[in-house]
C-alpha cells in the first residue's frame, strides 16, 4: 500500500518502476512485523545468516561479494550542471550524460525482483533540523540496514505531506559489476543514484551520499552545516553537560572518542561522556544565536576489527542485539561472530568473511589474505543499544556546541592539543587538516594526505566555496561561535611508539578544551595557536612525566615551516577561488614562525 498521496513522490516511483520493471512494489512502513518478514525471507534465500539467538538476539550476518567491500571514491561523482561547481577535489560528470548512462545500466534490472520503497528521515522525525528522503532498492539487506541507520516508515511521509523538499535515492544492485559501479550525487536535483554495489557506504543512501554530499550542498544554499563529525556530551561533577563536535579522517578513532569511558579517577569524581553521534553532525544556528547539532543517523555503521571491550566497550555492547554484521568471521561452534582484535580466542571452527573454512593456524598479522574478517567489516547497530547514548539523542532542536575539534594522525608535527586564535584561524586549521597513512593501508607509510575538515570524499560542491561557507557561518555566529581546537593523539617517539596513551585518557584533553571554552584554563600563545600549560593537563594515575608531556605539546619551528610550505602547495589546487582570508591566515602563520 502506498504510504503517501504526495504527487512528486508517486510520480518519481512510477517513473523508476517503468525503467527497472520490478515484479512488485513494497512500501516499508517501519513496522516490526514487516521487517521481521523481510529478515525471514533474507534467511531463507541465504542473503543473511541468523546468529545465536541466546548470545546475539536479533543479530544477523551478511557477506558481500569480495569485489564489493568498501566505498569507491574513484567511482563516486558529483554531477552538478557546471564542472566548476564540483571543484578540484571531486570527480565530475555532466548530469544529462550520467543520467543516461545510469538509466541504461539499471534498465529492466529489477525484473524478477521486488522494489522496496523506503521513506526515511535523517534526524528525529519532524525535527526542524531533519530532512526527508525516499530510497528505492532491490535489496532486503539495504532495507534492514536503513531501518537501523535511519528513522523509516509512514510517519516520515506524514511529516513530508505534499512538499517537494525530499531527496531521491535510487539504488539498483544490478549484477554488482565493479566495471559498471557508480555512486552519483546530483546536488541541484536532490538526487542520488547508486548502481552495481551492495556495500553499505555505497548503498545506504542516507549516510555519506545524502547526509554529507547532498546535505553539505543544501547547507551551503540554506545557511547550515553538514559535517563529518562525531558529537559528544561531556558531563562534569556538577551534572552540567557541554557538547563537542569533532572531525577526524577515517581510521583516526571517531567512534572511540564518541563513546569514551573516562579514567577511573575522573569517573569517581563524576565525569561522564554521552554519545550523540559517531560520524555525522548537522548544525544550525538556534534562536539564541548558538550553533546546535543533531546526529542525522539512528545507528552506528562501525568498523568491527579492533573493536573490543578495552578499545571501545560501549561500541561492543551496542552490537549485542538487533545488529547486522557484514563480512566478519562466523564461529561455527556457537554460531556467533569474530574479528581480528575482538579477543585472543581465535576460533578453530569458523568460516572467514568470504564463507570459506578459516585456518587459524595460518593467521599472519602481516598478510591480510589470512584474516578471518575483512579489515573493513562492519556492524550496523541501533544507537539505542549504546550504554552511553545521550538522553538528548532524539531531541529535535539538537544540542548546543561549545567546541569544534579537528584532528589527524601526525607522528611529529601537531601538538597533542592547541586552540585556534579565532574562528577564521580555526577554519584555516580545518582547511589544512592532514593525516598520515599507516602500515595498515596499502602504499607508502607516513605519507601526508590533506583532508580538509575530514570532508575530502564527502563535500558535494567546490571545496573553496565550502571554506567560504565556514567563514560566513563564523560571521553569523559572532561571539557565540564554538571555539575551535586541533588534537593529535598520534605523536611518536624515535622508535615509532605512540607517546600519548589515547582512548579513555583523551578525556584529560577534553577537560582542558572545555576549561578553555569557559575561560578557566590558561594557555601559552605560540605561532600556531594556544597550547596548554603542561601543568593544566591532568596526569593523575598516568605513567607519564612532565618532560614527556612537554615533548608532545612542543611546536617545532622547522617542522612547521615545512608544514606551511606544504599547506601553500595544497592551496594551489583551489586557485583564485580560495578565500583571501585563508591566504592571509597562511601568511600570518609564516610571519609568526619567522619571528
Ligand atoms: C565511514 C567512513 O564509513 O568515513 O564512516 O568511511
Ligand atoms: Mn565516516
Written description of the protein model:
The protein is of the alpha+beta class and 595 residues long. It has 16 helices and 31 strands. The strands form 6 sheets. Strands 1, 4, 5, 6, 7, 8, 9, 10 and 11 form a 9-stranded mixed β-sheet that branches. Strands 12, 13, 14, 15, 16, 17, 25, 26 and 29 form a 9-stranded mixed β-sheet that branches. The model has no long low-confidence stretch (mean pLDDT 96). 29% of the residues lie in helices and 22% in strands. It is globular, with a radius of gyration of 24 Å. Helix 11 (423-431) packs antiparallel against helix 12, helix 11 packs across helix 16 and helix 15 (557-572) packs antiparallel against helix 16 (580-594).
What structural keywords apply?
595 residues; alpha+beta; nine-stranded mixed β-sheet; globular
The main β sheet shows up as: 9 strands, mixed
The percent of residues in helical segments reads 25-40%
DSSP helical segment count? 16
End-to-end distance: 71 Å
**Beta-strand percent range:** 15-25%
The low-confidence runs, each spanning 5 or more residues with pLDDT under 50, are none
The averaged pLDDT comes out at 96
**Cα radius of gyration in angstroms:** 24 Å
Bound molecules: oxalic acid, manganese (II) ion
Amino acid at each position: 500500500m502506498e504510504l503517501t498521496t504526495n504527487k512528486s513522490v508517486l510520480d518519481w516511483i512510477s517513473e523508476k518502476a517503468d525503467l527497472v520493471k520490478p515484479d512488485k512494489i513494497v512500501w516499508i512502513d517501519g513496522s516490526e512485523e514487516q521487517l521481521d518478514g523481510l529478515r525471514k525471507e533474507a534467511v531463507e534465500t541465504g542473503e543473511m545468516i541468523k546468529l545465536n539467538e541466546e548470545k546475539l538476539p536479533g543479530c544477523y550476518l551478511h557477506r558481500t561479494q569480495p569485489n564489493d567491500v568498501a566505498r569507491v571514491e574513484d567511482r563516486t561523482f558529483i554531477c552538478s550542471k557546471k564542472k566548476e561547481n564540483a571543484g578540484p577535489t571531486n570527480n565530475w560528470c555532466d548530469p544529462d550524460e550520467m543520467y543516461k548512462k545510469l538509466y541504461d545500466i539499471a534498465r529492466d534490472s529489477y525484473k524478477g525482483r521486488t522494489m522496496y520503497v523506503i521513506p526515511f528521515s535523517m534526524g528525529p522525525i519532524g525535527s526542524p533540523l531533519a530532512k526527508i528522503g525516499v530510497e528505492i532498492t532491490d535489496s532486503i539487506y539495504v532495507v534492514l540496514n536503513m531501518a537501523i541507520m535511519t528513522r523509516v516508515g509512514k510517519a516520515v511521509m506524514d511529516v513530508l505531506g505534499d512538499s517537494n523538499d525530499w531527496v531521491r535515492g535510487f539504488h539498483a544492485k544490478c549484477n554488482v559489476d565493479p566495471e559498471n559501479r557508480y555512486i552519483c550525487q546530483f546536488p541541484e536535483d536532490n538526487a542520488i543514484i547508486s548502481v552495481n554495489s551492495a556495500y553499505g557506504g555505497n548503498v545506504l543512501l542516507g549516510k555519506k551520499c545524502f547526509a554529507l554530499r547532498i546535505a553539505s550542498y543544501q547547507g551551503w544554499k540554506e545557511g547550515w552545516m553538514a559535517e563529518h563529525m562525531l558529537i559528544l556530551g561531556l558531563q562534569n561533577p556538577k551534572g552540567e553537560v557541554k557538547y563537542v563536535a569533532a572531525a577526524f579522517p577515517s581510521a583516526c578513532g571517531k567512534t572511540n572518542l564518541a563513546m569514551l569511558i573516562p579514567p577511573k579517577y575522573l569517573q569517581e569524581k563524576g565525569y561522564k561522556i554521552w554519545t550523540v553521534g559517531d560520524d555525522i553532525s548537522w548544525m544550525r544556528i538556534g534562536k539564541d544565536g548558538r550553533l546546535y547539532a543533531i546526529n542525522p543517523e539512528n545507528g552506528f555503521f562501525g568498523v568491527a576489527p579492533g573493536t573490543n571491550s578495552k578499545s571501545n566497550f560501549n561500541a561492543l555492547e551496542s552490537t549485542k542485539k538487533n545488529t547486522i554484521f557484514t563480512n566478519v568471521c562466523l564461529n561455527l561452534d556457537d554460531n556467533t561472530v569474530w574479528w581480528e582484535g575482538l579477543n585472543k580466542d581465535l576460533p578453530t571452527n569458523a568460516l572467514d568473511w568470504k564463507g570459506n573454512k578459516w585456518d587459524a593456524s595460518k593467521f599472519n598479522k602481516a598478510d591480510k589474505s589470512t584474516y578471518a574478517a575483512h579489515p573493513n567489516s562492519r556492524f550496523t547497530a541501533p544507537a539505542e543499544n549504546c550504554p552511553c547514548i545521550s538522553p538528548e539523542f532524539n531531541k529535535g532542536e539538537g544540542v548546543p556546541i561549545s567546541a569544534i575539534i579537528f584532528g589527524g594522525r601526525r607522528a611529529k608535527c601537531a601538538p597533542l592539543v592547541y586552540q585556534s586564535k579565532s574562528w577564521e584561524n580555526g577554519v584555516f586549521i580545518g582547511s589544512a587538516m592532514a593525516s598520515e597513512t599507516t602500515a595498515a593501508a596499502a602504499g607508502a607509510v607516513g605519507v601526508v594526505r590533506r583532508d580538509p575538515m575530514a570532508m575530502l570524499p564527502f563535500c558535494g560542491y567546490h571545496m573553496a566555496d565550502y571554506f567560504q561557507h565556514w567563514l560566513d557561518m563564523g560571521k553569523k555566529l559572532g561571539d557565540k561561535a564554538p571555539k575551535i581546537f586541533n588534537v593529535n593523539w598520534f605523536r611518536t617517539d624515535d622508535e615509532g611508539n605512540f607517546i600519548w596513551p589515547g582512548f579513555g585518557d583523551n578525556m584529560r584533553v577534553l577537560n582542558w578544551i572545555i576549561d578553555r571554552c569557559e575561560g578557566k584554563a590558561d594557555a601559552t600563545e605560540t605561532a600556531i595557536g594556544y597550547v596548554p600549560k603542561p601543568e593544566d593537563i591532568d596526569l593523575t594515575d598516568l605513567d607519564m612525566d612532565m618532560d614527556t608531556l612537554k615533548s608532545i605539546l612542543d611546536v617545532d619551528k622547522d617542522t612547521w615551516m615545512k608544514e606551511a610550505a606544504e599547506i601553500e602547495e595544497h592551496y594551489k589546487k583551489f586557485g583564485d577561488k580560495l578565500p583571501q582570508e585563508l591566504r592571509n591566515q597562511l601568511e600570518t602563520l609564516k610571519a609568526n614562525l619567522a619571528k
